[in-house]
User: Which sequence fits this backbone?
């Protein structure tokens, strides 16, 4: 955990305290049948004392002008909540209980998709797999998503998102390295 947890952080969220704050940086994206691209991003994890972190992500085009997009034009927004459940005491297939806290993430996207992820937090690494993914009738067909977040050398936040969509297999979609914003 980087630094002390704020006084208003709910005790259940201590395993996620390293995420608190605003992070900014750049990432790369792409998918089968799509040209790769660069994007800018800002993510904020915030606590209000309740047992869930608020989460907001905004991305913008950071590549050369293409397909009517100019640098700085908005791309995607995600909003939601992250919460932590105590580790399971039930033995797994190997007879041992997994002592990693369980992370539950609920996200909503303005293009008609809502996602619920379940995963684990180990130190400063969070691994998430989609548990439920729903969409409106006009949203693109996304059937699964896997996310990995973690602190890397220098204290930056790095993440990777793999996606299964449009009948294509699970594959790399987005990745970024973000620096903690100075407040």
Assistant:
């Amino acid at each position: 955990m980087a630094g002390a947890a704020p006084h208003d952080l709910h005790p259940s969220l201590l395993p996620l305290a390293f995420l608190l704050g605003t992070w900014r940086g750049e990432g790369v994206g792409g998918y089968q049948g799509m040209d790769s691209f660069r994007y800018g991003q800002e993510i904020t994890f915030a606590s209000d004392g309740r047992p869930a972190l608020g989460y907001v992500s905004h991305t913008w085009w950071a590549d050369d002008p293409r397909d009517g997009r100019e640098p700085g034009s908005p791309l995607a927004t995600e909003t939601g909540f992250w919460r932590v459940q105590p580790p399971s005491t039930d033995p797994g297939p190997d007879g041992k209980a997994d002592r990693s806290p369980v992370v539950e993430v609920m996200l909503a996207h303005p293009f008609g998709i809502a996602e619920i992820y379940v995963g684990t937090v180990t130190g400063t690494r969070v691994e998430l797999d989609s548990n439920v993914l729903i969409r409106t009738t006009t949203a693109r067909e996304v059937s699964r998503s896997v996310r990995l977040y973690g602190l890397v050398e220098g204290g930056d936040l790095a993440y990777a998102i793999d996606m299964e969509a449009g009948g294509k297999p699970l594959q790399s979609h987005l990745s970024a390295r973000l620096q903690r914003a100075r407040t």
